Amino acid sequence: MKKCFFALILAFLVISAVFSENGRTVSLGLHFLAGGRYDNVRMCVGSDEGVKGGPIMDIYADLRIPVGNSDYLAVNLPVMRPVLFGAVFKMLQFEPQITYEHHSDVDGSSHSVLGAGTGLVFHYGPDYKSSRENRGDDFFAFGPLFSGFIGREFQGDKNSWMPGIKVFYSPLFSDEYDNGSVLGAAVEIHYFD
Questions:
Q1: pTM across the whole model
Q2: How would residue 43 be classed by pLDDT, with cut points 50, 70 and 90?
Q3: Of 100, 114, 30, nearest to 72 (Cα)?
């Protein structure tokens, strides 16, 4: 475990040194996501039995790597939902993603941001016909994740924050269950150095 931790720190330092451009360095941050989704595969712990979808909320750890003069490649790693669902609901919902962000003017105090992302969705748990009291059989499903983002970055003296709107889609595939789809939208608030 210690070797893995040190390898991650070393990788971050190497990435920071390699991708630093024009005084821009790799930055770390967090972002909060809250919205809703249609989901005809997975159980939603915030919805009643038989409801296809429901509310969605997560907190992500972000690593932003500068690309070119004004763009970033952001690695978005979900933290809250995988831990909460695993500990409390004995389920897995894990959706890591990489987002390409185009910043319209990195020298201004505020500017617009457009992003497009891709990632993976992993699910292990019951289907939408289940509830916490009446849980069905668990199964594994996975699929690609596609998203779009529009927001505005506000730069402070040391840190920046970026509110925006995200839309996303994922086809889900399973050998044990019918294939399905996830479609949703959410408000995001990013905070990074």
A1: 0.84
A2: very high
A3: 100
